[in-house]
Amino acid sequence: MTIDGYTRLAAVVAKPIKHSISPFIHNLAFEETGVNGVYLAWEIPEEDLAATLENIKRYDMFGINLSMPYKQAVLPYLDELTESARLIGAVNTVIHKDGKLIGHNTDGIGFFKSLEKQRDFQVNNKQLTILGGGGASTAIMAQAALDGAKEITIFSRSQSVERTQAAVETISQVTGVPMQVLPIEDKQLLQEKITESDLLVNGTSVGMDGHSLPIPSDLLFPENVLVADVIYQPFETPLLKLAQSQGTPTINGLGMLLFQAAEAFQAWTGKEMPTDLIWDQLIQKYDIK
Question: How far apart are the first and last CA of the chain?
Answer without folding.
Answer: 29
